[in-house]
Amino acid sequence: MEVWPPLLVVIFTLYVVSPCCGLEAVAKNVTVAQLLPISSYHGGLATYNAKNFGAEGNGTNDDTKALMAAWKAACGAYGTVTLLIPPGTYYIGPTKFHGPCKASAITFLLQGTLKAATDLRRFGNDWIEFGWVKDLTVTGQNNAIINGQGAASWPFNKCPFQKDCKVLPTSVLFVNNQNTVVRDITSVNSKFFHIALLQSKNMKLINIQINAPENSPNTDGIHIERSTGVVISDTHISTGDDCISIGQGSDNIDIARVHCGPGHGMSVGSLGRYVDEGDVTRVHVRNMTFVGTMNGVRIKTWENSPTKSLAAHMLFENMIMKDVQNPIIIDQKYCPYYDCEHKHVSGVTLKDITFKNIKGTSSTPVAVRLRCGVPCQGVVLQDVDLKYMGEGGSSSKCENAMATYVGYQHPEPCA
């Protein structure tokens, strides 16, 4: 990348109208900064450095306005552009990186640390928001970190035991984006979810590192909702809740080579809590490893669903479980609160779901739990080998599952 010297002056020939002589060639000394508000320019690619817009990166001064100003300049430029966040620690409150952008493609390049404010009065539902942008790449270099500073907020999270709770801010929300790549980023200690995808299309998340303590509440690693064409791969998630959760209205989700633990495992759901939820379809999860998690692969739907929906066409294959409490679980009577009524079955129909080549160890005797409301349709277990090292070995429990079993089965199928 060719960098413009900060005081470089270039001679431009400007043609002006002279009162006496018509067109007149006049040599003018114009600084590059007057013409191009960029930090570097090479081969038609422009880079906007956040520090040129007032960001200090000292970890103390609030850089929110500076980063948003840098984004505005990059987003408003034409061509392929980069917003550079150079090494340093950038203390910021709620920050919106919104489009639509004039740029044909934009890269958000983080080389330092983004550190969240801790005063919850400043926040709505999220901290960093990328919205209404096409052809966006969010990438990191030099151990780029997004630090939600969640420890100060976790005591105020009432959601684990209060149904109508105030949700704390998600660290990074992607909403209404198309053709987005997120890669080589580390997210630590989110206040609530680490990364959430909402109403987005064609998203790729590659080599993401997510870390929060095992007892941190609702710190889901990656949450997907009302999105389509999502790929997650080669990622490591250690957190206090679901490593990956797939919410309502999601379609064509592909997940591969993800390490999960500690945490609550990988979940489809919870589904069926609200009116008019969208279906969840075409989910393919493979080559995941779960270590010491509460669950392995889980599908969970609420009781007493107000309207009907579908969760269908899912394949979970090539999974390794290491001391997982519930390696395979379908729970259509999900309710984490003590005052659930247990009066009506879930309104979510489960259909065409396959668990294939699931192996390892369970930390509880029941390694396979299939708890359907109305009968599940087309549940297949193929080549399952899950051992409980305690007395009596592993077992299965089923309710309205009507499952089909193929190949080797341990524990033995339900009667």
Strand content is over 45%
CATH architecture of the largest domain: 3 Solenoid
- Tell me the distance between the termini: 67 Å
Unreliably modeled segments: 1-36
| The CATH H-level homologous superfamily of the largest domain | Single-stranded right-handed beta-helix, Pectin lyase-like
Active site: 264
InterPro entries: Glyco_hydro_28, PbH1, Pectin_lyas_fold, Pectin_lyase_fold/virulence
GO molecular function: galacturan 1,4-alpha-galacturonidase activity; polygalacturonase activity
Signal peptide: 1-22
Describe, in short, the structure shown.
Belongs to the glycosyl hydrolase 28 family. This protein is mainly beta and 415 residues long.
Describe the structure.
This protein is mainly beta and 415 residues long. The chain has helices spanning 32-35, 64-75, and strands at residues 9-18, 22-31, 40-42, 45-49, 58-62, 80-85, 89-92, 95-98, 105-110, 113-116, 126-131, 134-140, 145-147, 170-175, 178-188, 195-198, 201-211, 222-225, 228-238, 242-246, 251-260, 265-271, 280-291, 295-302, 309-324, 326-334, 348-362, 366-371, 377-388, 395-399, 404-410. The protein folds into three domains: 1-35, no CATH class; 37-224, Single-stranded right-handed beta-helix, Pectin lyase-like (Pectate Lyase C-like); 241-415, Pectate Lyase C-like (3 Solenoid), CATH 2.160.20. The protein is elongated, with a radius of gyration of 26 Å. The protein has two helices and 31 strands.
